[in-house]
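PROTEIN DESIGN WORKSHEET
SECTION A - STRUCTURE
LENGTH: 485
TOKENS:
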């Protein structure tokens, strides 16, 4: 069976929870052939991989959402036929859309996107939408916004897809559109595995964004919703990491019978017998943040909270462990914040192997404003470390448990609440018995339901079911071999 993994903005270009999950999944099935279809912003990122690709990855195909129209020498002037016009109109007016017509239009015709976006047909459809809902706006601004909204989708629809038996999309959005198009063109199967709920994450980003104002936020949100809808409609199976995420998928239009919860998993054995503190380090209480230094992780709130906590508990030391090159401007601002606050005992390590540091931590911290089911919490538990985390994604479930009575594995705080986060650091520092008990509670929780072996067995069955349903065969590994891998 040939599996095409469709990813957006993560693997293999940057580290992070989703990227680690994809890398581990591919390595778990060495007898399967994997093809990567990656969605990135532009060609400047092409081929710049953070991960060394496993041997069973045979091809990498890249889609650039910010690209040039390479078909400008196409038709000098054209008109859509009646069926194509109706399909494009239904898409833009948020009506029931004939996606198969659009797939054929963009895949089979030598179409210039520049000329389409500047065409009379596109103008007329946008004008109709404007008159229906947005006539209070300046039309020229509205028209150019609509062009910017639809250009990345049109690039997606023009992507020449590698053939595969199964398209495993690690999100909805543009990745989900590619999976839906592959199913229409090749008759393939589609599996969607959402780590966060893509549509909700984009909504949150847009509501905070400065580059888009007012009702234009709604237009972008509608765009992501309609892309997720076609992905859910086309998918044969849709997985999520925890029950509330599954409920959100259903709320967003995914048929309940297609949904399935498949929790994350970590290698507990990989995080056994970690090196601990040296003698000279024992006077410090180390709080470790394992993350990418990006705005969504809200490192600035973490630093501010640490400054307040440090005033009351001098033994505290903050380790910010992870790459700083994904958003270099934001990372520089975080470092400037540390300097401006005159903080001691804040260390930016850059990219690390967590095995070298996690054993030295007394607790870990996550102050994100959006998460799915963070691997960093599970990794902390595997190392018997308690966590401090904001109440996002599945953090509440991981800290307090969903199907167990092991007890709290850490302290939950509200998003961007500096006072709560600071107090949590102080409590961790001053109450060693509580800290140790929380670490053991977390360890029991990860052992009971979040081991890598559990996740591998789940996806082994999913892939095997797809393979059997298509009459395909693959030299499947035994579960013992998967566990040893």
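SECTION B - SEQUENCE
RESIDUE ASSIGNMENT:
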């Amino acid at each position: 069976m040939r599996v095409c993994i469709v990813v957006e903005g993560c693997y293999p270009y940057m580290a992070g929870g989703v990227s680690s999950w994809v890398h581990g999944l591919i390595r778990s099935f060495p007898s399967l052939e994997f093809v990567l279809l990656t969605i990135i912003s532009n060609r400047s990122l092409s081929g710049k991989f953070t991960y060394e690709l496993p041997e069973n990855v045979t091809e990498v195909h890249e889609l650039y959402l910010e690209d040039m129209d390479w078909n400008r020498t196409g038709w000098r002037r054209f008109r859509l036929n009646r069926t194509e016009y109706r399909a494009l109109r239904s898409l833009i007016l948020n009506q029931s859309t004939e996606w198969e017509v659009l797939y054929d239009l963009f895949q089979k015709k030598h179409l210039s996107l520049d000329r389409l976006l500047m065409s009379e047909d596109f103008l007329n459809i946008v004008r109709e939408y404007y008159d229906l809902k947005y006539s209070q706006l300046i039309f020229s601004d509205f028209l150019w916004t609509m062009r910017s909204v639809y250009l990345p989708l049109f690039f997606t629809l023009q992507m020449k897809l590698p053939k595969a038996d199964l398209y495993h999309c690690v999100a909805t959005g543009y990745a989900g559109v590619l999976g839906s198009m592959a199913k229409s063109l090749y008759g393939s199967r589609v599996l969607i595995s959402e780590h966060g709920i893509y549509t909700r994450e984009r909504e949150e980003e847009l509501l905070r964004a400065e580059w888009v104002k007012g009702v234009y936020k709604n237009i972008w949100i509608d765009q992501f919703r309609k892309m997720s809808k076609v992905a859910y409609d086309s998918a044969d199976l849709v997985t999520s990491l925890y029950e509330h995420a599954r409920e959100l998928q259903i709320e967003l239009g995914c048929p309940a019978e297609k949904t399935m919860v498949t929790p994350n998993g970590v290698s507990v054995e990989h995080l056994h017998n970690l090196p601990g503190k040296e003698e000279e380090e024992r006077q410090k209480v180390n709080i470790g943040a394992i993350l990418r230094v990006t705005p969504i992780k809200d490192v600035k709130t973490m630093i501010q909270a640490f400054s307040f906590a440090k005033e009351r508990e001098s033994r505290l030391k903050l380790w910010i462990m992870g790459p700083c090159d994904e958003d270099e401007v934001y990372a520089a601002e975080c470092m400037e914040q540390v300097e401006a606050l005159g903080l001691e005992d804040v260390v930016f390590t850059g990219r690390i192997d967590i095995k070298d540091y996690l054993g030295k931590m007394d607790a870990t911290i996550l102050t994100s404003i959006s998460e799915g089911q963070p691997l960093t919490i599970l990794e902390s538990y595997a190392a018997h470390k308690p966590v401090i985390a904001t109440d996002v994604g599945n953090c509440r479930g991981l800290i307090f448990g969903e199907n167990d009575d092991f007890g709290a594995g850490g302290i939950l705080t509200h998003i961007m609440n500096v006072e709560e986060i600071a107090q949590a650091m102080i409590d961790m520092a001053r109450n060693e018995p509580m800290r140790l008990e929380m670490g053991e509670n977390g360890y029991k929780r990860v052992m009971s339901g979040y081991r890598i072996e559990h996740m591998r067995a789940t996806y082994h069955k999913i892939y095997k079911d797809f393979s059997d349903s298509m009459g395909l065969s693959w030299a499947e590994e035994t579960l013992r071999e998967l566990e040893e891998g």
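SECTION C - NOTES
The domain at 269-449 is CATH 3.40.50.2000 (Rossmann fold).
Residues 139-158 form the longest helix (20 residues).
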